[in-house]
């Protein structure tokens, strides 16, 4: 998961200690909130948005997260539906928990022999989200989107008084195969990696404006 995605989940957890109370206050349904858009042309669009967790609960729904547990059910339902001709995984996710991702990716991979499955990345398809996209028959990516960030990160909180207490600190471990997954912008190499991404997106912006305005 991207640092921003993890911070989003942690911030929501700290702000709202009672998910059921929040759900009631917001007027959101507590069950059956996942939506698969079945188009008239027989294409089922399965959304994969927000941070990805293994199990579904009120917290994943309220925080905008997605669970592999529900995704597996959604995808299998689309596969079994004789009126569904193909499936599109509509992805905008920073990634998430590694547990459950490989099993779901294998389900998608196996389903390709039954029905065509396309992955579309609009916004972000990073880390665990790209793992799922890679299992599809094909991948399309919007020019202004970010994709990749292959690798694993784990954090460990240590300290005499436990997590989030005075004197505690967080240690982060990044898989050695993916040195750029957590680029440190305070270093020359890390800053260059961040600048590379910003420059690439800036060029997409310039090219798009030039094309639409008929100029250079």
Structural notes for this entry:
By secondary structure, the chain is α/β, with parallel strands linked by helices. Helices cover 38% and strands 23% of the residues. The chain has 7 helices and 10 strands. The strands form 3 sheets. Strands 1, 2, 5, 6, 7 and 8 form a 6-stranded mixed sheet that branches. A two-stranded parallel ribbon has the order 3-4. Strands 9-10 form a two-stranded antiparallel sheet. Strand 5 (86-93), helix 5 (101-111) and strand 6 form a beta-alpha-beta unit. The protein is flat. It starts with a helix and ends with a helix. The model is unreliable at 22-33 (pLDDT under 50).
What's a concise summary of this model?
38% of the residues lie in helices and 23% in strands. The chain has 216 residues and is α/β, with parallel strands linked by helices.
List the topology elements.
Elements: H1 3-15, H2 19-26, E1 37-38, E2 43-49, E3 52-53, H3 58-62, E4 66-67, H4 68-80, E5 86-93, H5 101-111, E6 117-126, H6 128-134, E7 138-141, E8 146-148, E9 153-158, E10 169-174, H7 188-213
Parallel strand pairs: 2-5, 3-4, 5-6, 6-7, 6-8
Antiparallel strand pairs: 1-2, 9-10
- Estimate the helix proportion, in percent: 25-40%
Choose one word for the global shape: flat
Secondary-structure class: alpha/beta
**Taking all residues together, what is the mean pLDDT?**
82
The biggest beta sheet is recorded as:
6 strands, mixed
Poorly predicted tracts of residues: 22-33
User: How many helices in DSSP terms?
Assistant: 7
Per DSSP, what share of the residues sits in E-state strands of 2 or more residues?
A: 15-25%
Oligomer: single chain
- Computed over alpha carbons, the radius of gyration is 19 Å
H-E string: HHEEEHEHEHEHEEEEH
Tell me the total number of β-strands: 10
Distance between the termini: 37 Å
